[in-house]
Design goal:
By secondary structure, the protein is mostly helical. Helices cover 85% and strands 0% of the residues.
Length: 442
């Protein structure tokens, strides 16, 4: 089981870690310009794309879980139908985002805090990068489907190519072309379409037979389409909560001034680096739990869950130790501006505590998705967002300021971990095929 976990996890970790590497490069390129406003601009622009892409990120999760269950059942037709349903929604959504780019941009900059100078630079970034949306959303479906088919290599290959091209293009466009924030955005557009083309080639190479199952009537079959939309809808609400928390975190940071916005943006990379690493195990959980759910193998399901948590705690402890020892030194990856480094110093402790508070939530997310226990995952996210982030922040902010923001973020992750652990016996292991799970474990 350890080998099966690592076979799926290692490629996912490699592909996931290229994402914060790209963010590090983008922030480095902006942080070493002559103003902290460039870092703030990329941060605000990135928040808008988090809103856009995380909304469609539900497709990746629902496609992954449903494809994994179809794989465990050995149902080739349903494997193909999950792919086609997800891709049709992704392409329609990508085109809709392009058509609505101006209303999205105007509403987003109206809602987000920040100086006018930062918002102006962020608008330049947004209205270029938005053209990558159709490719980026389609890639979510392709990568989710590949993972559900127990193939973590293809997402790894495409992620390495996308982020490698993005880094090279951004460096050239910023350092040589002097396009500043526009160069970073244009690098993303170029990379996403190259990655989409590569994904199509890989699909045709190994899964060409899936084309034979294409049928508009089968794609729109009521029962399976209703299930797909139900799971996607629950995950969408869960994702909306996630977006709300991280968007508010950045917006509230901007409300404390450009320096705190830049400092919190840099420190947030500590959180995101660990989350991208642990998501490798969460994605493995999606694939394995979905597969064993589909094949009705409760013994292997139990074994997979137990060993995933062993790996999760091990790496949470390691990251906590690394952050505790590294401290301020990691901030030099993002900026050399002393005022930003000094502004971040009082809040490093909170970023250090994040791995231990959050690792269980990432693993449970993958397990819940694989078991398509989407309603329970939605409910735990609603609880953590309202009761563990927003309420504590509004109560503590008048007294503790930016410390309250970080305390609320830690509470949010811990609240997710605890509530998902409490609900797991009923939400994940409730079905008749797994009715003996708890007793057998005891």
């Amino acid at each position: 089981m350890h080998r099966q976990i690592l076979k799926l996890t290692i490629p996912n970790i490699i592909s996931n870690l290229t994402v914060p590497l790209l963010t590090i490069v983008d922030l480095h390129l902006m942080g070493y310009l002559d103003s902290a406003q460039f870092m703030g601009a990329v941060a605000l622009g990135g928040v808008i794309f988090n809103i856009v892409y995380w909304n469609f990120g539900t497709l990746r999760s629902s496609v992954s879980g449903l494809a994994a269950q179809a794989y465990g059942e050995g149902d080739l037709k349903q494997q193909a139908m999950v792919f086609y349903r997800g891709l049709a929604i992704a392409l329609a959504g990508g085109l809709l985002v392009l058509c609505l780019q101006y209303p999205i941009g105007i509403a987003s900059f109206w809602l987000l805090d920040g100086s006018e100078a930062v918002k102006s630079l962020a608008a330049n970034y947004f209205f270029i990068r938005i053209w990558a949306a159709p490719a980026a959303i389609a890639m979510m479906v392709l990568n989710g489907w590949f993972l559900g088919m127990q193939n973590a290599r293809y997402p790894m290959i495409t992620s390495l190519v996308i982020n490698g091209v993005n880094i090279i293009a951004s460096v050239v466009l910023v350092r040589v072309g002097h396009l500043e924030e526009r160069g970073v955005a244009l690098g993303s557009v170029i990379a996403q379409y190259i990655g989409l083309g590569l994904s199509v080639i890989l699909f045709l190479r190994k899964y060409r037979a899936m084309i034979l199952y294409f049928s508009v009537r089968a794609v729109l079959e009521r029962h399976h389409l209703a299930r797909f939309m139900r799971v996607s809808g629950d995950i969408y609400i869960r994702t909306l909560c996630l977006i709300s928390v991280f968007t508010y975190f950045t917006s509230a940071s901007a409300g404390y001034g450009d320096l705190i916005l830049a400092a919190n943006t840099a420190l947030l990379q500590y959180l995101l680096l660990f989350s991208y690493f642990l998501d490798g195990f969460a994605y493995a959980a999606e694939a394995l739990v979905g597969r064993f759910f589909g094949s009705k193998d409760k013994k292997k399901l139990r074994e997979a869950v137990n060993k995933l948590f062993l790996w999760g705690f091990f790496f949470a402890a390691i990251f906590t130790a690394i952050y505790g020892i590294g401290g301020r030194q990691f901030l030099y990856l993002f900026t050399d501006q002393k005022e930003v480094l000094d502004a971040a110093q009082p809040f490093i402790l909170w970023a250090t505590l994040f791995p231990l508070a959050s690792f269980a939530s990432y693993l449970w997310d993958g397990i819940y998705i694989g078991a398509t226990a989407s309603a329970a995952m939605r409910n735990t996210m609603l609880f953590a967002s309202v009761c563990c982030f927003f309420i504590p922040y509004f109560l503590l902010a008048p007294y503790w300021g930016n410390h309250a923001l970080w305390i609320s973020m830690i509470g949010y992750m811990a609240g997710r971990s605890l509530s998902q652990t409490i609900l797991a016996p009923r939400a994940v292991f409730h079905s008749s095929l797994l009715s003996g799970f708890i007793k057998e474990k005891d």
